[in-house]
Amino acid sequence: MHCPFCRHPDSRVIDSRTADDGLSIRRRRQCPECGRRFTTTETASLTVIKRSGVVEPFSREKVMSGVRKACQGRPVTEADLAMLAQQVEESLRQSGIAQFDTNDIGVAILPHLRTLDEVAYLRFASVYQAFESLADFEAAIGDLRKTQVAASGPSSEVKE
């Protein structure tokens, strides 16, 4: 690590601690040449391979903007979108892979969006799961209904 003050090519780590809920490491460093101290933040970088072949860094903001379109007109707040983007990034990091296709990220968004808003989930899924007909929508709606029935538990109706 180069010293930002004198550009000496080396520095000594004085203190290290995790930051951002363990997603990054904050290091306090000291330059052996000039003696000045500075702080660095280290994160593991996630990269995205776009359909055109271009590689760029992962962006929570891009996740949010893509999901925002699916949530248009729905009762979803900016805070909800930020939380969803954070959850998606955490799930991608937990996979242990550093490079993803855009389609992989879209698929990673789906389970988080499904719990946030079912209508937005259907809108988003229609793109990332390549729905081609009404039957695809009907199947997705059927899956949502099965999940709702399973979550509500056994029926508590009284039989006469």
Radius of gyration: 23 Å
Helix content estimate:
40-55%
What is the residue-averaged pLDDT? 88
Uncertain regions spanning at least 5 consecutive residues: 155-160
Query: In the residues, how many domains can be counted?
Result: 2
Major sheet strand order: 1-2-3
Secondary-structure class = alpha+beta
Largest sheet geometry? 3 strands, antiparallel
Count of distinct strands = 6
Helix count equals 5
Function: Negatively regulates transcription of bacterial ribonucleotide reductase nrd genes and operons by binding to NrdR-boxes.
Domain ATP-cone: 46-136
Pfam families: ATP-cone, Zn_ribbon_NrdR
Zinc finger (unnamed): 3-34
Word description of this protein:
With 160 residues, this protein is α+β, with helices and mostly antiparallel strands. It folds into 2 domains: 12-43; 58-152, no CATH class. Helix content is 46%, strand content 19%. It contains 5 helices and 6 strands, in the order βββββααβααα. The strands form 2 sheets. It has a 3-stranded antiparallel beta sheet, with no helix packed on it. It has a 3-stranded mixed beta sheet with strand order 5-4-6. Strand 4 and strand 5 form a beta hairpin. Helix 2 crosses helix 3. It is elongated, with a radius of gyration of 23 Å. The model is unreliable at 155-160 (pLDDT under 50).
